[in-house]
Structure to design on (499 residues):
């Protein structure tokens, strides 16, 4: 019997070891809020942490229907990463983790980085030029980085960083008093670029989004997130009560500033998450944000199902079943996945790429945010402007099939993508590439008296029913590319469809 018992123990141990090596599966819980909405985030992402199931939404109100609809109407926006990392042409704050060897050289590198702001004067920045560029190129909203992980505030924060890490000398690596804002107001430029951008955007009807990172790698009172280059692995609220209280106060106050100092904000884009011991605080933050601006859409990162939307990054979901939250893809224009300034023109994607991704995403019910940033002076790369202009030209012709649309039951067949208006009286069939003499559109059965049009062409097209769909005949003159209304992709407008 002893060999059998030993074998059982060995098999049990092997089973434990095998399961320990399996990747963690992140499956958000269904939770019901005060309005009876069933809330569930996107599965398979580490932005849902298991402890987030411990939330009581029974007295919590999410953003109202009107805010969600406005969010879904936007469809096309720009995520602007701009900060002191733009001086180094690095991957946003993540450049601080480059060559991390925990030695004095690495600490000195951090110190030099955190001193860069002292000489920063982005002379080219002009909020009106930025927002004119957005409007001209078809963007309906933007999200601007008010504070990335490096902790540098790109707005006029009144909060104080009370402690930072000592980066140089015999005391390097220790916590020392700091007592400054660590913000753009302490640069020679000394202007609240966030305020200027919001004011200009509001005048032009652009949706306003502000990004805010929960981690802060400069304020030593935040030294407990898992990516922190100077992380204190032994940090706990009980062992570090003063630092913990300073963290809670400043973290909460900065979010309060963003939601009280700049008028109505369409979306607040939280980023990352914090350890489980911070979860009660994060729930307080979510509730405070909702109290301050009931209509503001909150990104779910760090706050779980208190959030209103989520953001797949650098990939497009296979379908629209992404939980119950609204969603928008953030995708870099840089082929190197740099969200901020990409200096190498060969690494900047073209406008045709933007159009393709936009059509795919919108057909599934999402928004596209192009991730890109200006250089250290506040100027945009010419290749970026070229790509955005191409997409803007396409949208001037075909925007009707993109903006304020909703997904059809069948989102795509081959290279034909479908969208519809919110009243479900018009279906748009968008095809990549010119279809030739005719286009077969499946699963769309308009009334015999209905018009079928090509956006950008002012004459109705000839069509006939066949099988489960229709065949649209294209004008003879369209054989010549120069007579076509646009390049690359073409949107057909089908009235009164019966799906």
């Amino acid at each position: 019997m002893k060999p059998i018992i030993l074998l059982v123990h060995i098999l049990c141990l092997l089973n434990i070891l095998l399961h320990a090596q399996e990747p963690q599966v992140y499956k958000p819980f269904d939770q019901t809020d005060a309005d009876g909405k069933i809330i569930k985030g996107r599965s398979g992402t580490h932005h849902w942490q298991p402890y987030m199931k411990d939330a009581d939404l029974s007295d919590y109100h999410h953003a109202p229907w009107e805010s969600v609809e406005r969010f879904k109407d936007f469809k096309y926006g720009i995520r602007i990463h701009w900060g002191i990392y733009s001086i180094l042409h690095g991957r946003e704050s993540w450049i601080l983790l480059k060559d991390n060897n925990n030695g004095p050289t690495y600490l000195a590198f951090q110190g030099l980085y955190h001193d860069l702001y002292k000489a920063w004067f982005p002379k080219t920045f002009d909020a009106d030029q930025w927002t004119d560029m957005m409007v001209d190129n078809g963007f309906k909203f933007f999200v601007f980085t008010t504070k990335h992980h490096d902790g540098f505030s790109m707005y006029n924060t009144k909060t104080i960083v009370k402690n930072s890490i000592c980066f140089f000398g015999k005391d390097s690596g220790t916590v020392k008093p700091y007592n400054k804002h660590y913000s753009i107001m302490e640069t020679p430029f000394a202007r609240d670029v966030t305020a200027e951008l919001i004011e200009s955007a509001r005048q032009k009807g652009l949706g306003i989004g502000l990004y805010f990172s929960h981690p802060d790698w400069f304020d030593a009172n935040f030294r407990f997130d898992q990516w922190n280059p100077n992380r204190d692995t032994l940090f706990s609220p009980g062992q570090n009560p003063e630092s913990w209280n300073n963290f809670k106060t400043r973290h909460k106050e900065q979010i309060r500033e963003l939601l009280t100092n700049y008028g109505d904000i369409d979306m607040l884009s939280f980023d990352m998450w914090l350890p489980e011991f911070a979860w009660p605080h994060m729930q307080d933050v979510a509730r405070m944000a909702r109290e301050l601006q009931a209509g503001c859409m909150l990104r779910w990162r760090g706050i779980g199902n208190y959030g209103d939307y989520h953001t797949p990054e650098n990939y497009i979901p296979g379908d629209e079943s992404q939980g119950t939250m609204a969603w928008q893809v953030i995708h870099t224009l840089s082929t190197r996945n740099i969200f901020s300034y990409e200096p190498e023109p060969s690494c900047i994607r073209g406008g045709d790429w933007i159009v393709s991704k936009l059509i795919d995403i919108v057909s599934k019910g999402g928004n596209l945010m192009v991730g890109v940033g200006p250089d250290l002076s506040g100027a945009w790369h010419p290749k970026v402007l070229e790509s955005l202009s191409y997409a803007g030209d396409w949208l001037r012709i075909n925007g009707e099939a993109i903006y304020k649309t909703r997904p059809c039951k069948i989102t795509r067949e081959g290279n034909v993508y479908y969208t519809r208006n919110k009243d479900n009286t018009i279906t748009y069939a968008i095809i990549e590439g010119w279809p030739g003499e005719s286009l077969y559109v499946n699963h769309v059965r308009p009334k015999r008296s209905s018009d079928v049009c090509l956006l950008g062409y002012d004459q109705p097209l000839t069509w006939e029913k066949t099988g489960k769909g229709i065949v649209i005949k294209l004008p003879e003159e369209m054989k010549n590319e120069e007579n076509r209304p646009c390049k690359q992709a073409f949107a057909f407008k089908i009235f009164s469809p019966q799906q």
Observations:
- The radius of gyration is 26 Å.
- The domain at 406-495 is CATH 2.60.40.1180 (Immunoglobulin-like).
